[in-house]
Amino acid sequence: MRESLPPISERVALLDWPRIESELNEYGCATIDALLTPAECMELAGGYDDEAAFRSRVVMAQHAFGRGEYKYYAYPLPHPIAALRLHFYPRLAGIANRWESKAGNAASYPTDHKTFLERCHTAGQARPTPLLLKYDEGDYNCLHQDIYGKLVFPLQLSILLSAPQEDFKGGEFVLTEQRPRMQSRVEVVPLHRGEGVVFAVNQRPVQGTRGIYRVAMRHGVSRLRSGRRFTLGIIFHDAA
User: Fold this and answer.
1) Distances in Å between the alpha carbon of 178 and those of 5, 184, 190?
2) Residue 136 contacts residue 68 (beta carbons within 8 Å)
3) Which of 43, 157, 229, 239 is the least crowded, having the fewest Cβ atoms under 10 Å away?
4) What is the β-pairing status of strands 29-32 and 54-59?
5) How far is the CA of 17 from the CAs of 30, 40, 149, 164, in angstroms?
6) Three-state secondary structure of 2-40
7) 3-class SS letters over 94-137
8) pTM score above 0.90
9) 63 versus 206: which is more confidently predicted?
10) Could you count the other beta carbons within 10 Å of the beta carbon of residue 26?
11) Tell me: the pLDDT tens digits for 210-226?
């Protein structure tokens, strides 16, 4: 019998959004259980060799990004990627706007993703950014930020498509946070297949003794000890 979940819109609506926002405020990341079924994960990972679905391929070692490779999807995005982007965005935009308000900024993000993408395209950022990453034994992803132009949505989503300890070992998702005049803090995020993590793209506001300040965030993947690991990345701004 084929395992199923409700439509993506219902899955997103049923998430514990107060908990997600609380963890994002505290740690800069929040985990999400059971976003995709194993069948959905295998279907997405199995599409890696479908060249028609992608606009470009990046070999990380050629750019000193690490080891491994990834491909950016082309428009129109396949389901459920388009649905994840569409339905996560309004919830995350509310959090992003509260972050901007907390930091005393006038900037705000529209409540629907279509309007935000129109802003991206007007600014010359029209290439889709959702991507599928593939790691084999010995591969890793250096700490980085996914910034593709002047317009940057401050939160993004990553979903693990492979099963830890079955398909691969090692390859943990990691985040670092650099506060002023302090050493970096590291967060290791364990995930099961089909689970996701929402995290800050580049900065997040933190309450200090003298008011709000921003801390820099970077993310990456530790070295894969064995096997093969596929990950889906959902970035909400388009690229120049």
Assistant:
1) 38, 5, 21
2) yes
3) 43
4) unpaired
5) 10, 23, 28, 26
6) CCCCCCHHHHHHCCCHHHHHHHHHHHCEEEECCCCCHHH
7) HHHHHHHHHCCCCCCCCCCHHHHHHHHHHCCCCECCCEEEEEEC
8) yes
9) 63
10) 11
11) 778 888 999 999 999 99
Structure tokens at 8: 């993506």
Average pLDDT estimate for 68-89: 97
Find where tokens 């990950």 sit: 231
Structure tokens at 188: 């290791």
| Residue 10 tokens, joined | 């219902």
Confirm if 69 and 134 have CB atoms less than 8 A apart: yes
Q: How far is CA 134 from CA 68, 190, 213, 236, in A?
A: 6, 18, 35, 20
The CA–CA distances, whole Å, from 203 to 96, 187, 210 equal 11, 15, 18
At residue 51, the 3 state secondary structure works out as: helix
Q: Report the alpha-carbon distance of residue 103 to residue 122 in Å, rounded.
A: 26
What are 140-167's pLDDT values in tens digits?
999 999 999 999 999 999 999 999 999 9
Query: Is the CATH code 2.60.120.620 the one for domain 8-234?
Result: yes
